[in-house]
Amino acid sequence: MPVIVYFLITDQFKFAAALFLLAGVSDAIDGFIAKQWNMRSELGAYLDPLADKALLTSVYVALTFKGYLPVWLTVFVVSRDFLIIGGVVLAWIVGRPVEMAPLMISKANTTAQIALAGIVLAGAALEFDFGGFVGLVIVLTGALTILSAIAYTAAWLKHMSDMNGNEG
Question: Are 2 and 62 spatial neighbours (Cβ–Cβ below 8 Å)?
Answer without folding.
Answer: no
